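Sample intake sheet
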Amino acid sequence: MVKGLREEASARGIAPPHIVLLTAGTVWPEMALLVDAIITKPFEMDQLEQLIHRFLPPAESC
């Protein structure tokens, strides 16, 4: 599925989506290589917020 999302973005000529894996279990090394970030349960909301901000474009200066 991850590979398909990236291939579709490439075919459309757009930037691939950021892919975050949310898991409560073990992450297979092969899967870890396919995603941009991994967050494991339980997690704190500030961890999720930091992760989201990592992928947002920088704010424009006024």
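Comment: The chain is about 40% helix and 15% strand. The mean pLDDT is 89.
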